[in-house]
Each structure stands twice: as C-alpha cells, then as structure tokens.
User: Fold Phospholipid-transporting ATPase from Oncorhynchus mykiss.
Amino acid sequence: IKAPWPSVGVDLFQFESLDMCRRLLRGVCLASPSTGAAGMTDNIPLQPVRHKKRHDNKNRNGCCPWSRCCGMGDFRPRTVWLGHPEKREQRYPRNVINNQKYNFFTFLPGVLFNQFKYFFNLYFLLLACSQFVNELRLGALYTYWVPLGFVLIITIAREAVEEIRCYCRDKEVNSQIYSKLSTRGCKLKSFPADMIFLRTSERNGSCFLRTDQLDGETDWKLRLPVACTQRLPTAADLLQIRSYVYAEEPNIDIHNFIGTFTRGNATHSEDGDPPVNESLSIENTLWASTVIASGTVVGVVIYTGKELRSVMNTSNPRHKVGLFDLEVNCLTKILFGALVVVSLVMVALQHFAGRWYLQIFRFLLLFSNIVPISLRVNLDMGKMVFSWMIRRDSKIPGTVVRASTIPEQLGRISYLLTDKTGTLTQNEMVFRRLHLGTVAYGMDSMDEVQSHVFSAYTQPSHDVPASRAPAATKVRKTISSRVHEAVKAIALVHCVTPVYEANGVTDQAEAEQHYEDTCRVYQAASPDEVSLVQWTESVGLTLVGRDHNSMQLRTPSGQILNFTILQIFPFTYESKRMGIIVRDESTGEISFYMKGADVVMAGIVQYNDWLEEECGNMAREGLRVLVVSKKSLTEEQYQDFEARYIQAKLSVHDRSLKVATVIESLEMEMELLCLTGVEDQLQADVRPTLEILRNAGIKVWMLTGDKLETATCTAKNAHLVTRNQDIHIFRSVTTRGEAHLELNAFRRKHDCALVISGDSLEVCLKFYEYEFMELACQCPAVVCCRCAPTQKAQIVRLLQERTGKLTCAVGDGGNDVSMIQEADCGVGVEGKEGKQASLAADFSVTQFKHLGRLLMVHGRNSYKRSAGLSQFVIHRSLCISTMQAVFSSVFYFASVPLYQGFLIIGYSTIYTMFPVFSLVLDKDVKSEVAMLYPELYKDLLKGRPLSFKTFLIWVLISIYQGSIIMYGALLLFESEFVHIVAISFTSLILTELLMVALTIQTWHWLMIVAELLSLACYIASLVFLHEFIDVYFIATLSFLWKVTVITLVSCLPLYILKYLRRRFSPPNYSKLTS
Assistant:
C-alpha cells in the first residue's frame, strides 16, 4: 500500500478511493478473482483446506441471470491470481459503505409506506379520498386534502434532508484518498479492503496492526507476510511470478482465516521449479479498518464491499420507530374506536331510518376531528425543534443529531450499553506505581528511582561487597540495587520493538544507526507493555534496539548493554503470564525474567507476606497490577532446559501440555522483584457521569472486545462497580453442564456485578438464554469482555426482547456499529478510532461526559414536552368534536357540520397552532436542577407523562369544556343561528388560549408572543368571516359578556383544581423549584 515502487506499473498501483479497490479486484492490477476449480482454464489443482456443501450451477449463479453482475448470490470461496486479469470470471461487490435507509427509487415509496403504516395517517388518507364521493362530501375538498398534504410535505422534506446528509457523509468516506503511490511512496492510515499480506519494508519481515476499529482490542497485532513473496527482490516481481491465493468464503469470523498461497507448478512454471504451497492463517491477513503501525506493506485484495469482515459484522440500518410514537398510535386507535361508537350511537338514535349506512359514513366524517390530523405534524415539527436545541447546546459542543425522529427516546432509557476503549477510556496507559514490598514509588517520587538507576551505572562503588561498607550505606545500597534490578527486569521482560522513522531532519537509516530518541516509536502487542518500557526510559534505562535474537538497552551514561534472547514465552489468556530468558553479553549471566497476574504469580514466587495485600490495594485504586520476578540460571541448567524444551516442541501428541510442563519446571521459587501499577486513563468526567446515570435508574453494561483483566480494572477504575459491590467473574464454560453449574453458583449471590467473557456468554445464551438474562438483568452492572461485534448487537436485542425496556448503545469504533444500530438509541463518540460509529449513530457526541446532559436534560425535556404537546392536540380536537356531538344531538341527530370551510381549518392552524406548539419550549425545572437531581429522570421510566390515566383526564376535560361551550352558546343565543357560531367559536378559541396558559410551567417570551399573535390573527380575520359570523353582533356588549361567562365557566374550575393539587399534592419537581 505504501511502497517505493519502481517506474514499471506505478499507475496501476494507484488507489484513489475505495471504489478503486473494486476495479483492482476486477483485474486492473494486482489480482483477479476466480471461483472453483471449474473456472480455472489452466487446470491447476486446488487444495481447499475445508470443504463446504456443494451447490449446483443455478444456486451458484444466484437467483437471477444478473446476479453475477450485481455481485449477489451465495458467498463462495475464490481463487485470486496475481498479475493475470484474464483469468477473472466473476465480478465482486463494489467497495463502498452505505448508511442510507433509501435509495433514489425507494425513497418516495419508502417514506410514504413508513407514514401510512401509522393508523391515523392511513385513516386520514381514506377520509380525504372519501370526499370524491358526492353522497359523503361534507364540505370543500381542501378542508381534508390541505392538512394531509401539509403533513406529508413536512415529513418528506425532513426525510429528504436526512438522506441527503447521510449520502454526503458516505460519499466523503467512499471517495477518501487512501494512498497515492509514487517512487518514494506514502503512508496509509487504514486498509480499504481485506487483503493477504505479501511484502513489507520492515527489516524484521513483519509488521504490527491496530485492530480496535474491528474488534475493540487495543493491542497491536503481529502480522507476517507470505514467505516466498517476501523474499522477492522487488515488489514489481509480484506481477511476474505465476501465483494465486485460495481464500475461504467470506464469513463474520474476524479472528480466523483459512487459505493457501501457491506459486507455480511443475507443468506451468516457466523455470521448471516445483510448486511452492504455503498455508495462510489470520497472521497473514490485513483486514479492512485496521491500521498499520509503521513501514510499508503490499497485499492482494481478496474481499471487498459487503464481503468485508468489518461489513459482515455490522447490521443494515433500520428505520427506528420510537416507543412514544407507538403509544400515540395506540391512543389514536382508541380515539378511532370512540369515533365509531359515537357515529353508531347517532344513527341508532335515528332508529336506523332511511339509508342509515350512508349516515354512518357521514357521521364518521363529521366527527373525524376526534382523531387529530395535526397530531403527527405537530410531533414531527416538535422533534425538529428538540434536535435543533441539542445541536445548539453550548455545554455539549459538537453534538450532532442524525436521526431527528427519536429525540424523546432519550428520556426513557433503562439500559445503557457502552464500549470501553476510546469511549470510557482514552486508551493511554500511564505508569503510576512501583512497589518493592518495603517501599513504594508513586508519580511524585520517580526522581528517587531515577537517581538509584543513575547511581547503579555511574558509581563504581556499587560493586563493593556489603561487608566493607558501613551499616547505613549497606541499607541504602540494598534499596538502590533492588530498584536497579526491578527497572532492569521491566526493561527486559516484554515483547516491545523500537522502530525508527524519519523526522524530516534525520533519515530512517541514520536514526536507526545512532538510536535517535526523537525518531523512536515503540510497538507492542499491548499498550501496557509500551507504557512500562516508556517508564524505564524516563528513569534512565532505554530500550534502543531489538530483533528476534537480541536486545539493546542504553544506560544513563550512554553505555549500550547487549542481551541475547534465548527463549520467549509469550502471554496467553490461559497462562496469564509471559517470560523471557536472556544472556547478558558483558557478564555471560543467564537470567529468567517473568511477569504476570498476581493470581498465577503468587504460586510461582518465593513466599512473602505482602504480595496479596498490596495487589489488592493497587487494584482498588483501579491500577492494572503485574508481578515481576527473576531467576538466575547456570549454563548447565539452561542447556538441560533447552534440550527438554526442544524435545517437547517436537512431540506430536499432547505438544502444548508437554511444553507447558517443561516451562513450569523453571517457574519455581522465583525471586519477587516488584509490583507495577499501570492506569488506563479514563475520559474526562466518566465517573460523575456514570454516577448520574446510576442515580437516574439507568443500568450500565460494558461490552468490550478487550481481555477480562483489563475490562475488570476499567470497571473498578470508572466506578462502574462501586466499592461496596462484589464482582462475580463467570468461569469459562464450554458445555451445557458447566454453564448450569456456574449459573447456579451465580444465582446464590446478591447485589453482585457480573463479569463474563464472550465465549462463556455464547454457551449460556445457547442453552440457558432466559435464565441468564433474568439473572443478568438483576445485576447492578454487567461487564462482557472478548465480545465480537455481532455479540454486542445480540445482547442489545435480547435486552429489548426480555425486558421490554429502552436501550441506548454508546461506542466509538467500527466494531460498535452493529450494537449502535440495534439499540433504540445509538450514540457515537467521535474519537481517536475514527468516525465510523459516529456516522452510523442516531446521535453523535464528542465526549462520553456529554451523555449525562443529553439524557438528563434534553432527553427528559423532549419526552415531557412531546407528551404535553400530544395530549393538548388531542384535547383541542376532542373539544370541537364534543361541540359537534352536542349540536347534532340537539338538532335531531342531523349530520350537519357546525363549522365549515375556513373556520374548521383555521381552528387547528393560525388560531391555535402557535400557542399549542409553543409547549415545546416549556420546562418544569432548569437544566442545572435536572443535572443535580438525576432522580427526576427515574420518574419518566414509568411512562407517566403519557399514560392511559393522563389520557383519560384530558378526555374528561375536553368533554366538559366542549359541552359547557356548546350548551352555553345554545342557552344564550337570541334569534339567529350565526350567533351560536360566533359565541361558541370565539369561546372555543379563548378557552384554548387560556388552557395553554394553564398548562405552561415556565414561561418563555415566545409563548407570550404566540398567545398574542393568535388572538390578533383571530380578531383581524373576523372582518373576512362575514359568511360564518355576524360582524355587527360581535361588536355588541351582549356578545362580550356571553363569551366571557362561557369561557370562565369552562376554565375557572380547572384553574382551581390545579391550584389545589399543587398545594396539597405537589409533584417532585415543584419541591425543587420552590
């Protein structure tokens, strides 16, 4: 990808964008895929590693004649040839990402379907269509079509804006320049496709990858190129050899790969060399979304587009429908039922006379206001306002709302599932403590350690026997030598490799030759090890060079210490320790150093009385503790060990067991040197944010791809697990019986946080899904480590199904996309791991601490405001429907409308729309109070702001006010029917304006403007409403006192009830505001 290419074929190796990889895969340059032995015209035999069920040609080609062109059909193994595009037989998927819900052709049908699947939208469509039937028409067509059209236009416009924004974001990523090759080459940040590693410029013939975007692990992974291609003189020779890669069919397993690399054969090789076959594994792969540490690499593309491992581990974006929308939809169905009942009662009171079935339809149209058409558009516009408020909040800068349809979901979250690396932590390891048993050194006393190391290498007296020195000097030298031994051990027992890069002043070769400090970068499989080596450098002992067989350290005086690496025993999750045997070239001394977790090292080191206690103390501070030990070996002891070790590695049966047994023979009575404490720094204000969420009644689960010890330490450090809570580490299980026993053991514990690995979780969910989820949901906190991306999404889905509660997923990497898209609310954190999670999320924040304000303030306000707005819109429609019912019943159940034409449209638009919609600005408490008392959020989890109880209360209020207004107008009118319309309609408008004022809890200046503007619009429009209202009558004193009396009777009792309720049974928030 970055390479000092020769002039030959430079243009062919130019990656301008992701789409270039697609053309590359189709045979433009490096490779051309072919599938199956039947597709290879040269009859070169394939030796697939594992066999899958065969498909006939029909299934192989897909479901249609065009599936080969579309890259569709079943996933199949493939053979990718290097430098032979003529062997290509099949086209593969385009290498692009797509986060859009619709495309150009499905946008309009998709949006209309998602709108008309709501009951009341479909109801109003049928209602408007019914007006084309003459027998059913009650007024002008615009009375029904204009409101419906307005709702649809607003919805389509909103969806179009979101889709265009999503398209632009995807286009920016898909057209990103990954590498532009020249004779000097340039560095690539991440791989655009899944590839097989062919060559590297690194001297040691390997490279390190970072895979946190893929699996969430922060460790650097070692990758090895294909041996025979690494030995080629130049990269251009890759196109000259006859070779191909056999790759297994695409699958979601990011930790395993099976394939073969074949170079030539006896019949087709030009030089007659025998064929070279090499097995390929995960160590030879370069998955998309991973990042190369240093150097340059060359690879051949094997998977693109939807066949990428990263893409197969993500789910397709779904159209999220909020729980609030479903509840409102349920209420509208109840209102429709009431509409049908009222219509049937009216016809029944007419004794089903005449064409009664037509009368039923006319009454359904007449009382259609019972189901408010303006409800959906008011809620949608309210959501747009809530989204705008979130974006404009200066206390959470950089927050982006990508899904403006579900902001009220943020107010009802019961489970928050978060990633660890980059979300809770900064992924920056810092050395915090060195403990020698009798003395401990913290960050404030590292200068003492530095002085001890300096004196050990600069004062010749440190070799003087202790018997010749005074007592005080003896003690001081003993501490100094212990510190020196500990620092030296930490500088040697690791797998860190120093890499030198050019910095503009010094080139790479010169920097490597002179060990330039400014050009050195450390690479390792664990950030913990890098932090330890960086610490030894800070105190004077610097790792300056390393290869497979040797290591070089530089002392404070500039002297280079050379060590020969005799054996390395790498860290494994089973052993929980790593060791190294080195020979000091200056003295010939052979030393065996080991470091590991305290649980395993306690049985390896010599007896002591402080190890367990100090490990516990450091762990409670959130530090990752490692125990460092040493054992000196004679030449005879090492030779004996080496012979047994080699023999064990050559064993065919039980090789791993025999090797472990030989190593354990050395791991006895080792000298305990020190304890080290490393801290993974948390993001800013993670602890108070988690405390806020916990007090708000939200249970936090941490799902991470990192290892168990790391996840447990972070959970303690972030106070996800409080100090008075026990932690139950779920034992690794592989069978149903083991899972049953472990679940029974876990069931006996109470108020205990759970830590479980992905493998054990998979077994439990396979056999005891219900039992496990029941126990896990009772835990105050759950930590799932070693989780695959699909497992994260599965956990979210199970929580939704088993509890019925709303979930929120938070992450920052590509491995979190599935979880984010599956959750009811997905929040992406823009961080060091890129924007992949942020682009796929519903909401995007820059820091985890912003989540507290997003939920406690904006989520709470959005839900309460939406609930108040929906209930008031329903109240507004029920009032006028009640008046229509009273009017029809008084006039012999006639299906005659009380208000016609502009009156019926103006009532729900210019006369009352602004005051009612201004409820989106209402709030019960200030944002500072909501953050200070997160317990207020807990009240919303029960769904009380919008419940059947509150709905019934508003229905009763509507019936009362509608009846008072209509009966009052009928009682007080004098001679003409238009007087009834004038009195009742004016009283109705004033009642609605007063009810808005009654509902408001915190006044905003825009609310006052909305009230006055609506009243002014109504008074001004009376001049043009002479067709419906007697203009001369409304100017009389009789009209004014009648309207005043009716309005007071309809509103005053409600004011009194509200006062009495706040006086004797105040809500929680009123206690805080007072």
